[in-house]
Write a structure and sequence with these properties.
heterodimer; A: about 120 residues; alpha/beta; Transcription Regulator spoIIAA; five-stranded mixed β-sheet; 4 helices; globular; B: about 725 residues; alpha+beta; Beta-Lactamase; Phosphatase 2c, domain 1; five-stranded antiparallel β-sheet; elongated
C-alpha cells in the first residue's frame, strides 16, 4: 500500500493550500484532520485542497471534509477542491459532494473564485 | 546397604559371578600348590596369574561403582565415604593381622593348617584390600574433577597412565620391581643412592622418566582441591576433621601393610598398585587439610555472600509470582527487613501523569505518617532519584539537607536507604529502608537494595503484562459478543416473495462492520430493499449500522416513496451522526403488483440493472447525496428518484464498495465491469446462484488478499411467470 503525505502552503490572498497525495483512508485520515485543525486553529478559513497526487480516498477520508466544512463556512471561509484525478472525482460525485463543495480542474480557477 | 548375594540378584550381571569364579580359581591354585609342596608358595604362573587377577577385578568393579554409595557427587558425602572405606580397610587389615597372630600362634611353624590359614588370609585380604583401594581412588575422582578444567582430565589421565605403565613393567620385567624397592626402601642413604647411580643400567632409563612423570602428575592432581572454596564454614570444619582422620588412617596403613601383610606374594602387581596409590592417599588429605585451614578465615564472609544471593533469588522468585500490583507492594515491605537489617520499610509508587508519589505499602510505620512527610517535604531526595535513577545511602539523616522531611518521622529514622524501581517505561516507584541507628547501612546494603529493586521492577512489569493480556482477552471476548449480536441484525430469513428470487450476504472485514442490508415486506404488497455502508469501520460504524436498522424497520411500517423514505432516514439519523461520518445507501421499493421499482441512490455505489429483453446489464447512477451530509429532508433536493418497469428475468444487483474496490495482490480493483459481464453470461441462473458466483469470482480475483472493507451483496431476480 502506497503511503500518504499532506503538506500545507499559504497562497496569495490569505488562501491556504493543503496538498494531499497517496492513499487517504481510515489510517491516514487523522493526518489530514491534523492539517485542517492547525489551519482552523490559526483562523485560516480559506482552504484549498489540492488532490493532484491522490491515488485513493476512502469514506473515512471523505469524512474529514465534512468534519470541518461547517466551522469554516460559519467563519465566512470555504473549502474548495481542485486537480482531482477522474477516479477520485467519481467517488466525490457518487457521494454528492459536487453539490456541497466547489470542485475545480485547475488551482488557478479555485484561487480566482476565492478572490471574488 | 545390600548383602553380597543381593548385589548379584539385583543387578543380574554375569560378570560379577565370573569375577568371583576366577578369584576362586586363583585361590584354589594356590591351595593346590600348598598341599602339594607342604609350604607356603604361591602357584606362580607369571603373567597369566596377574592377568587373571586384573580381569576378575574389572569384572567385579564394573557394577559395584554403580551403587548410590559411589555415585553421590556431594563433596562432604564423598569425603565421608572415603573415611568409611579407609576404616573398613584398616579394620580388615587389623583383623587379618590378629587372626594370624592369635589362634594359630600355638601351631607349629610349618604345620599345613597354619599355612592354609596364612594363604587364605593373604589371598582374601590382598583381594579385598586392593578392591577397597581402587574404590577409594574412584571416590577421589569427583573431588579432583570438581569445577574441572581441560587440564584436570589431562592430569588425571596422566596419573592413571603412569600407574598403568608401572604395573605393566612389573608384569613384563620382574627385575624392575627389585630396582624400585631398592630406592624406596626405608633405610636409604646417600651411599645407597651413589651405589644406585653407579649401577644404572638400560632399564633405569625407562624407570627414571616414569618416576619423574609420576611425581609431576601426582602433584598436578594434589592441587585439585577447589571444592573447599564452596563449602560453608561448618562444612569446612567437618571436612577438616574427616581428612585429618583419613590422613592418619592412610599413613598407618601404608607404613604397616608392607610388614604385616603378604600381598607381594599373592600378586606383585597388586602390591605395586598399592604402593603407587599410597603416595596419593597420604598427600591428597594433607593438601586438602592445608587448603581448608587457609580458607577458614574467609569462610564466614563467603557464607554470608552465598546466603545473600540465595535469599535474593528466592525472594525475587516469590515476588515475581505475585501478579496483583498491590500485593507486590505488601510482599516487598514484608521481605525487605529480612534482606537488609532495617526496622522500617516502605514502597512509594510514582504516578508520572501527576508527578506525585503515593505510599504503596509500609512495614512498622503507618502509611499516614509517611504521606504526611511526603506532603511536608520539598521532594529533594525523590526528585534526585527520579533524575539520576540511582539508589541512595544516607547514614546521618539528621545532618543531611536532602531529607528534611524524614526528621519528622519521630526519631524512628536515622539512617536511610532508597532505591529506584525502574522499568523500561520509566520510574515505577522507590523502595525505602530505614533504621533508627545511625551508620546502620553500608555500601553492601545499598547494592543489595538496588538488586532487590530490580527484582521488584520485574515483578511489577510481570503483573502489568498479565493484566494487559487479561484485558486483551476480555476485549476479544467483547468483540466476539458484539460480532454475534451484529450478525443477528442482518435478516435472519429473507422474506418469501412469489414474484422475486432473492439472494444476499454480508461479511464484515473485522469483527464489527459498517455495512447493512435489509429486505422488508409491507402490508400493502410492496418490498423495501435497503443496502447501506456507514463510513469508517469498527465499533463506531457498527453503532450507526444498528441505528440505521432500527430506523429502516420503523419507517418500513408506513412506507411512502423511496425519496420520502430517504428524507425521513436522513432527518432522524443526522441528529446523532458525528460531523465527519456519513452513510451511503441505496433504497428501493418494489410494487409487487405492478412490478414497478423505484429507488434512490444516497451517495451509494451505482445499482446494476440487467434488462432481460436487451440481454444487457448496466450501471444506474441517478443523482444522489450521502445520508448525513446535509441536514434533514434537504437531502431530497439533492437526490433523484429513478423508476424501472421490471419484466420477467430482469436482475438487480445491490452491492457495497467492498466488492467493487476489492483488490488483488497487484493492487488492481475488481470494479463493476466484471459483475456486469458475469450477470450477462449467467443470466439464466437463479438469484442465489448468482450471489454465489459473484462471491467466488471476487474471491478468485483477490487471490487470498484479505478484504479490508466489509462486503455486502443483494441479487434480486424477477421470476418468470411460466415457472
Amino acid at each position: 500500500m502506497s503511503g500518504f503525505a499532506v503538506t500545507t502552503n499559504s497562497c496569495e490572498d490569505g488562501v491556504s493550500k493543503i496538498s494531499v497525495s497517496g492513499y487517504l483512508d481510515a489510517h491516514t485520515a487523522p493526518e489530514l484532520e491534523k492539517a485542517f485543525q492547525t489551519l482552523v486553529n490559526d483562523g485560516e478559513y480559506k482552504i484549498l485542497v489540492d488532490f493532484e497526487g491522490l491515488d485513493y480516498i476512502s469514506s473515512a477520508g471523505l469524512g474529514v471534509f465534512m468534519g470541518f466544512i461547517e466551522e469554516v463556512r460559519s467563519n465566512s471561509g470555504d473549502i474548495k477542491m481542485c486537480s482531482m484525478a477522474t477516479k477520485i472525482y467519481k467517488v466525490f460525485d457518487l457521494l454528492g459532494f459536487p453539490s456541497l463543495y466547489e470542485i475545480f480542474d485547475e488551482e488557478v480557477q479555485a484561487l480566482e473564485k476565492f478572490r471574488e | 546397604m545390600f548383602s553380597f548375594p543381593q548385589i548379584l540378584t539385583r543387578y543380574k550381571y554375569p560378570g560379577t559371578i565370573y569375577g568371583i569364579l576366577i578369584l576362586f580359581a586363583i585361590v584354589a591354585g594356590d591351595l593346590t600348590a600348598l598341599l602339594t609342596n607342604g609350604v607356603v608358595v604361591i602357584f606362580d604362573y607369571g603373567i597369566l596369574r596377574e592377568a587373571l587377577i586384573v580381569v576378575s577385578f574389572i569384572l567385579l568393579g564394573m557394577k559395584i561403582v554403580r551403587f548410590d554409595f559411589f555415585q553421590d557427587t556431594n563433596v562432604l558425602k564423598r569425603i565421608k565415604s572415603i573415611l568409611i572405606l579407609f576404616s573398613v580397610l584398616l579394620s580388615i587389615a587389623a583383623a587379618s593381622y590378629f587372626l594370624l597372630l592369635s589362634p594359630f600362634k600355638s601351631f607349629p611353624k610349618d604345620s599345613i593348617l597354619k599355612n592354609i590359614a596364612i594363604l587364605l588370609n593373604e589371598s582374601v585380604f590382598s583381594y579385598v584390600g586392593t578392591y577397597l583401594y581402587l574404590l577409594i581412588f574412584w571416590l577421589y575422582k569427583d573431588l579432583i574433577f570438581f569445577k574441572q578444567k581441560p587440564s584436570t582430565v589431562r592430569n588425571y589421565v596422566g596419573l592413571v597412565a603412569v600407574i598403568g605403565v608401572e604395573l605393566l613393567l612389573v608384569l613384563i620385567l620382574p627385575d624392575f620391581e627389585s630396582k624400585d624397592l631398592a630406592l624406596s626402601s626405608d633405610n636409604f642413604s646417600w651411599e645407597q643412592i651413589k651405589v644406585f647411580f653407579k649401577t644404572l643400567e638400560i632399564l633405569d632409563y625407562i624407570f627414571i622418566p616414569i618416576v619423574v612423570a609420576g611425581i609431576f602428575y601426582l602433584f598436578a592432581n594434589l592441587f585439585r582441591v577447589s571444592w573447599v572454596t564452596y563449602l560453608s564454614k561448618t562444612q569446612k570444619l567437618t571436612a577438616l576433621w574427616q581428612f585429618t582422620l583419613i590422613f592418619i588412617l592412610a599413613s598407618i596403613f601404608s607404613s604397616a601393610n608392607k610388614e604385616a601383610l603378604l600381598i607381594n606374594e599373592f600378586s606383585p602387581l597388586l602390591s605395586k598398585l598399592w604402593e603407587s596409590l599410597n603416595a596419593f592417599f597420604i598427600f591428597y588429605p594433607l593438601f586438602s587439610i592445608c587448603y581448608i585451614i587457609l580458607h577458614l578465615p574467609t569462610a564466614r564472609l563467603f557464607d554470608k555472600k552465598l546466603k545473600e544471593i540465595s535469599t535474593l533469588h528466592e525472594i525475587g522468585q516469590s515476588v515475581i509470582s505475585v501478579i496483583n500490583p498491590h500485593e507486590i507492594g505488601e510482599k516487598v515491605v514484608q521481605i525487605l527487613p529480612e534482606i537488609i537489617e532495617c526496622k522500617i520499610a516502605w514502597i512509594e509508587l510514582y504516578e508520572p501523569t501527576k508527578g506525585v508519589f503515593t505510599v504503596g505499602a509500609s512495614a512498622n510505620i503507618s502509611k499516614k505518617e509517611i504521606e504526611e512527610s511526603i506532603q511536608n517535604s520539598e521532594g529533594i531526595l525523590r526528585n534526585w532519584i527520579l533524575k539520576h535513577n540511582k539508589g541512595v545511602l544516607i547514614n546521618e539523616l539528621m545532618k543531611d539537607e536532602r531529607v528534611k522531611e524524614f526528621k519528622k518521622l519521630g526519631g524512628k529514622s536515622n539512617a536511610l536507604l532508597a532505591a529506584p524501581i525502574e522499568s523500561k517505561n520509566g520510574l515505577i516507584g522507590i523502595l525505602f529502608a530505614s533504621s533508627d541507628s545511625e551508620f546502620a547501612f553500608d555500601s553492601e546494603d545499598l547494592t543489595m537494595i538496588n538488586s532487590f529493586a530490580n527484582q521488584v521492577s520485574m515483578a511489577f512489569e510481570n503483573a502489568n503484562l498479565v493484566s494487559e493480556s487479561l484485558e486483551k482477552e476480555r476485549l476479544e471476548q467483547e468483540f466476539q459478543i458484539a460480532y454475534s449480536v451484529q450478525q443477528r441484525l442482518f435478516p435472519q430469513k429473507l422474506p418469501k416473495v412469489e414474484e422475486l428470487e432473492i439472494g444476499a450476504f454480508s461479511i464484515p472485514a473485522t469483527e464489527l462492520g459498517g455495512d447493512y442490508y435489509d429486505l422488508v415486506r409491507t402490508k400493502d404488497n410492496r418490498l423495501l430493499a435497503v443496502i447501506a455502508d456507514v463510513s469508517g469501520k469498527g465499533a463506531s460504524a457498527a453503532f450507526y449500522m444498528a441505528e440505521t436498522k432500527g430506523i429502516v424497520k420503523s419507517l418500513a411500517k408506513d412506507l411512502a416513496s423511496p425519496k420520502k423514505f430517504l428524507g425521513s432516514v436522513n432527518e432522524i439519523i443526522s441528529e446523532s451522526l458525528a460531523k465527519n461520518m456519513f452513510i451511503t445507501m441505496t433504497a428501493g421499493i418494489f410494487n409487487l403488483e405492478t412490478m414497478e421499482f423505484g429507488f434512490v441512490r444516497a451517495g451509494h455505489c451505482p445499482l446494476i440493472y440487467f434488462d432481460s429483453e436487451k440481454g444487457k446489464a448496466e450501471l444506474l447512477s441517478p443523482k444522489g447525496m450521502g445520508v448525513g451530509l446535509v441536514k434533514g429532508a434537504m437531502i431530497e433536493k439533492f437526490t433523484e428518484e429513478q423508476t424501472l418497469q421490471l419484466k420477467e428475468n430482469d436482475i438487480l444487483v445491490f452491492y457495497t464498495d467492498g466488492i467493487s474496490e476489492a483488490r488483488n495482490p497487484e493492487g488492481e480493483e475488481y470494479g463493476e465491469e466484471k459483475i456486469l459481464e458475469l450477470i450477462e453470461a449467467k443470466q439464466n441462473e437463479s438469484a442465489e446462484v448468482l450471489v454465489h458466483k459473484i462471491k467466488r469470482d471476487v474471491g478468485n480475483f483477490v487471490k487470498g488478499v484479505p478484504h479490508f472493507d466489509d462486503v455486502t451483496l443483494i441479487v434480486i431476480k424477477v421470476k418468470s411467470k411460466i415457472n
